[in-house]
Amino acid sequence: MKSKTTAAILAFFLGGIGVHRFYLGQTGRGILYLLFCWTFIPAVIAFVDFIIFLTISDDAFNQKYNNGQVAGVSGGVNTAEELGKLHELKEKGVISDQEFELRKAKLL
Description:
The protein is an all-alpha fold and 108 residues long. The protein is 68% helix and 0% strand. Keywords: Membrane, Transmembrane, Transmembrane helix.
């Protein structure tokens, strides 16, 4: 789970070399920042990113960088309920035992 505060701090202090982009899982953009860091253009863009991270809502940040997940909640779903649904699907033969185990591992 990526933190908005951590991303903002990284953008402010190390944004010129793209560390915040690597942290957010945007490796391609991070490499571009590294390639062009000598021009100081990435530093300016990183400062804009810093301002955006400070002003963006937590929900919007989570939607964009955490696939909509909320901190402290496993994807915003009731895990026991989801496991029950998966078990029902397995019992009905809709999903295999192997697929059940994979989905269960993702939930837990």
